[in-house]
Description:
Blueprint lengths: L11 E4 L13 E7 L6 E6 L4 E6 L3 E4 L2 H11 L5 H15 L3 H8 L3 H7 E3 H10 L12 E3 L15 E8 L4 E5 L5 E5 L4 E3 L2 H10 L6 H15 L3 H8 L3 H7 E3 H9 L1 H4 L4
Antiparallel strand pairs: 1-2, 1-5, 2-3, 3-4, 5-6, 7-8, 8-9, 9-10, 11-12
Helix pairs in contact: 1-2, 2-3, 2-4, 6-7, 7-8
Amino acid sequence: MFENPKEYRGWPVLVDPDRVLRDRYAGSVGRILHRNAEKGSVVIVYFQDYNKYEAYCSDELLVLLPGRTILDNLIANYPVLKMAEVRAILDVYSLFEEKYYSDAFQLAQKRENVKKFCLVSCKELSQKKQRNMKVKKDFMIGRVARVPSDLTTDPFERRGEIGRIVNTDRVNDTITMKFDDGLTADYVFNCLEILLPTKAILYGLNAKWKEFDKEERSIIKEVIRLASKKDSKAALMLACTETAVKNFCVTDTEAFYALKKNPRKHLGLR
């Protein structure tokens, strides 16, 4: 049952051909028009290609998971996926974000490993959204960052060292870092190095695969693997060992902050 009858209005859906066997729209893509507030499991779908309406139970309709969820699923399972599956999942994400809905649904159904990470029933998606409601917090706190080796001025003498962000102050434009020996130090907000979100690295790798040589691809894939295992410190250390990899995987903390605020803009999506 959707939390809000209007929340999914216009959302593209696929009539699940495995559950709706004899329906003339099985396997077709339509858009959610309405949900009955009292009969929450019933969804009215509009099929533009046929200019027709039909009613379905919410567990008979498939939707593509939100983009961030698709990427989270990919990151969590990256070590066990084949590269072809990784790229297919990223292609589904890209097609959906660019509003090529039919192509996205079609591609998502071709491979079982792609389907289970990208598609879900309307009913299940609503249940997941209800379970995952969280209070927003400062997304910078707890992340690891590195003091650049070539930082011009560092009164704390921590160049090249990695610490953890324990506080941010946008008013005074500072980040407070805590290092392994317990030292806490304030740095200008944009002067530290931080690993790009794993989602952005994956998306970029898929788009620029041919630009890297075999060794660089191998390092980037290992960076992704480490990050997906929540070993961000090791991932950041590895990313900084090779110039091309660092330029691709690492950014400054100001740019990272802007990216997390508007990921679609960074990925070149409207």
